[in-house]
Amino acid sequence: MRASNHIIGLVNFLTFLISIPILGGGIWLSSRANNTDCLKFLQWPLIVIGASIMVISLAGFAGACYRNTILMRFYLFVMFFVLVALLGFIIFAYAVTDKGSGRSVEPGLPGI
To answer: If you ran DSSP here, which 8-state letter would residue 53 be given?
Structure first.
């Protein structure tokens, strides 16, 4: 049982370290002087994703290190919803980018 707790703790610590550049990237995008619409659109999802991954990994790390079942159940519950959301996003991205489902948009055409 100890080895599995150490492995879960190590994986969550590495995930925590990976979330730092994600969060930093979102903050860096928000501080840029030439904020275009694309940068404004990307900054808040990056900040939210980075912060949520950080909180989830800290809960898993603390739950594994201190053998706290409440934190481990929270970690399991939240990770389940993260994986379901990721699966939904993958299906959505595939449906949107599938060949034949998109159309070329050219300026000057009716309806644009």
So the answer is: H
For the chain, how many residues are written?
A: 112
Contact 67, 19 (CB under 8 A): no
pLDDT tens per residue, range 68-106: 889 889 988 998 888 888 788 778 767 766 665 556 666
| DSSP per-residue codes, 11-72 | HHHHHHHHHHHHHHHHHHHHH-SS--HHHHHHHHHHHHHHHHHHHHHHHHHHHHHTT-HHHH
Alpha-carbon distances, residue 106 vs 50, 97, 112 (angstroms): 36, 18, 8
Q: Which residues contact 14 (CB under 8 A, 6 or more apart)?
A: none
Q: The pTM is what?
A: 0.68
Type of residue at 89? F
Q: Tokens 């009716």 label which residue?
A: 110
Structure tokens at 47: 């900040």
Q: Cα–Cα distance between 112 and 90 in angstroms, integer?
A: 28
